[in-house]
Specification:
Chains A, B: Residues 4-76 form the HTH gntR-type domain. The structure is a homodimer of 240-residue chains. By secondary structure, chain A is mainly α. Chain A has two domains: 8-73, Winged helix-like DNA-binding domain superfamily/Winged helix DNA-binding domain (Arc Repressor Mutant, subunit A), CATH 1.10.10; 78-239, GntR ligand-binding domain-like (Four Helix Bundle (Hemerythrin (Met), subunit A), Up-down Bundle), CATH 1.20.120. Chain A is 67% helix and 3% strand. The first copy, chain A, is built from eleven helices and two strands, in the order αααββαααααααα. Chain A has a two-stranded antiparallel ribbon with strand order 1-2. The longest helix of chain A has 21 residues, at 96-116. The two termini of chain A are 37 Å apart.
Amino acid sequence: MVATPAYTVVLNWLEEQLRHGKIRVGDKLPAERALAEHFSISRASVREAIRILDAMGLARSATGSGPQAGATVISEPSAALGWALRMHIATRALPVKDVVTTRLLLETQAAWDAASGENDDHTDRDDILSHARDLLDRMDDPEISNDEFHALDAQFHLLLTSLAGNVVLETIMVSLREATIGYVQETVATLEDWPSIRATLQTQHRDIFTAVTDRDGKLATRLLRDHITWFYSLVPRAEK
Amino acid sequence: MVATPAYTVVLNWLEEQLRHGKIRVGDKLPAERALAEHFSISRASVREAIRILDAMGLARSATGSGPQAGATVISEPSAALGWALRMHIATRALPVKDVVTTRLLLETQAAWDAASGENDDHTDRDDILSHARDLLDRMDDPEISNDEFHALDAQFHLLLTSLAGNVVLETIMVSLREATIGYVQETVATLEDWPSIRATLQTQHRDIFTAVTDRDGKLATRLLRDHITWFYSLVPRAEK
């Protein structure tokens, strides 16, 4: 028998409060004790609800007492949804091949929007591009570790995606990226010629960057597609 | 101060177990008591971990004792991720406009794949199409409620999407759909001429269905784009 757990009243209540603007991002949630009394449920059930909100990127809990204690409403969907997608991929319900195809679709659209400048109310375009260029310069340093390279690589792709100005698309992209970190790291570990592959990736990154900067949407889209498809082609067959 | 809560060891352990195929969908998780002892954490912390897995569509808990008790590993990403996206939309971090644009992108690609039959290892294509036709017939019944109409409408779109054969794309589509149920219902509530709009939606559904059945990807994509864009144009400006 599957019963509806007590904590769901807290989650449903919060959704209502958010929808009607009565609670906003940055607000504190009422104390555990107050919520428990209000809904006539145990404090353990309230804590379960808050743990779920933490895991979903909807609350951040602080320990201790005093004004800093308790949970604050946040909205950081990417890491939370990325973790959830990664878990579902681990169960084999979501194949890596389908993640890559979906990423390709979303990221090429983002590159098109970013390059063609259809979203030119994006006043910080120059700042974003200059930040992206810095990342590429840091990735050229042969001294940085593979982990650092991957982290900078992810940030570079994310910055270009953010230029498209669609928060949902960006969130899903970050989640998919987060979901495939394991696959990227495992792939790299099996590659004999990683230094030359890393150099090729950088050449591709620079060409994509130039196309976006030059507002050549068609070229940016094609280069990005080639870049992702090429890296995926290196994945050992067993992983696909 | 943000501390790492005790329950995270259980989540990290499960991810490792899933990745290495030591635990699979359908398996029972060890009992709360056993996990608490193994990781030297409280049973309350183990329960928090399992609540999070429940909320993420990764576990289903049964109450009571005996062989049916305890949590079973499942993988039902759609409802869980849909709920999470809906909450983030409620915080206003994810605008409805961006959800609609992203849905448009993913669903037109799915319609293209479904119609062009690039995924013809999909042996149950005929069954899916025949099921979709049944849904349309039921939606023609003027006696059904608006809620039933919306539910059947959602199922129809999902069935066509499933023909594309990309599980990740399908999961995200269902999640986005789940995330905008509130917006659809609120829109409909404000429309004076709902009966005629409902008739128009049905005409559009039938045309899309015919294009997919006839394997006309170009037409299916265009009709679907018009269908979604038209409905979104009816949304009161305040909601966008």
